[in-house]
User: Which sequence fits this backbone?
């Protein structure tokens, strides 16, 4: 069942009120995030609670951190298997999302984030998937290609994000 983020009557907009690891809170402070944006304040608590969510917000409003922070919090770093899949409409957005995840997760030793997009050779991506990654950020076509090749294992996924899903539909995915 999907839940649309509803305004919280008295939302707290401080990151330190969230049930986040000290490492993640430290990175958030280092980055200079002072308070959560509206989308973050509405989405992060629901996602940390394991709820499904459909969110919409303007460009530059902090959407990637809104789904990235809970995603990183829930990863089991000691288990180097695919746990989260983020699908984006373009290579550029995949690169941007992966960069944000690596930045937010920089204190999670061993974190493996892999970009799988067209325009790059399949073999190195398949090799990285075989070695084990925690998060895949990719375009629909290349993700489907890896599924067809049996090079991506989806059985342990706990999180799936469709970033800019409306744009992917407009593009015919």
Assistant:
């Amino acid at each position: 069942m999907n839940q649309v983020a509803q305004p919280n009557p008295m939302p707290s907009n401080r990151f330190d009120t969230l049930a986040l690891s000290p490492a993640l809170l430290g990175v958030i402070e280092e980055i200079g995030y002072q308070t959560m944006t509206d989308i973050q304040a509405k989405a992060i608590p629901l996602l940390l609670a394991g709820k499904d969510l459909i969110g919409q917000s303007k460009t530059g409003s902090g959407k990637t951190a809104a789904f990235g922070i809970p995603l990183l919090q829930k990863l089991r770093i000691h288990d180097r298997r695919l746990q989260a899949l983020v699908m984006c409409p373009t290579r550029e957005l995949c690169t941007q999302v992966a960069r944000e995840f690596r930045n937010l997760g920089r204190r999670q030793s061993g974190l493996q984030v892999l970009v799988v997009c067209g325009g790059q050779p399949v073999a190195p991506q398949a090799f990285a998937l075989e070695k084990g990654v925690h998060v895949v950020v990719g375009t629909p076509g290349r993700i489907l290609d890896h599924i067809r090749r049996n090079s991506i294992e989806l059985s342990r996924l706990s999180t799936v994000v469709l970033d800019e899903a409306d744009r992917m539909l407009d593009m015919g995915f």
The beta strands are 3-4, 53-54, 84-87, 113-116, 135-138, 159-162. The helical segments are 22-31, 38-48, 63-74, 91-104, 122-131, 140-148, 165-170. Residues 31 and 95 are 19 Å apart (CA to CA). The chain has a mean pLDDT of 92.
